[in-house]
Amino acid sequence: MYRYLALRLLVDALTEIGKGNAVSIVPIHAEMTTQEAADLLNVSRPYLVQLLEKGEIPFHKDRAHTAVSGIRDMVDYKKRTDDARHAVLEELAAEAQKLGFGILNNGSTRSDPLPPSHLPASVFRLQGRKPTHPGETIRKPVCT
User: Are 131 and 122 in contact (CB under 8 A)?
Assistant: First the structure.
């Protein structure tokens, strides 16, 4: 069984390398620097330090150096945040469906969009201009 897993890991790594992606093989319990952890999460180092100080990700400090406990903690944090984002996205999609925006359950878009009068004017405001017909798209909305 371990031979199969090792072979599968090697095939997956070579596939990603073949696609031009970088691949790192790291032991699950290996500690990493804050920069390595920030790179893994694709966030800035100062933002990661804020997450560490809030207790979002376990870490320990040795005098002047901060080390993130391990990759498993990073993966757990990423899964928690991805799940939270997914829940918010589902809520927004449900609200969009309720209001008649977006994509229908069958994957098609609405063919009869709501007229602009049903939407707040701030959605359409672009340098003082409002859309002239229901299907018109304002490319750069200005928040008011």
Answer: no
10-residue mean pLDDT series, the chain (144 residues): 83 91 78 87 92 90 81 87 91 83 55 51 48 55 44
- Indicate left, alpha or beta for 22 from its phi (over 0: left) and psi (-120 to 50: alpha): beta
SS3 71: helix
Q: What are phi and psi of 56, to 5 degrees?
A: -70, -30
The closest of 19, 66, 28 to 46, measured between CA atoms, is: 66
Are 68 and 52 in contact, with CB atoms under 8 Å apart?
yes
Cα–Cα distance for residue pair 18/80, rounded to 1 Å:
30
Q: In which residue are the tokens 């090792």 written?
A: 6
Chain center to CA of 63: 33
How many whole angstroms separate alpha carbon 60 and alpha carbon 47? 17
In this prediction the pTM is: 0.52
Number of Cβ within a 10 Å radius of residue 141 = 11
Contact 124, 116 (CB under 8 A): yes
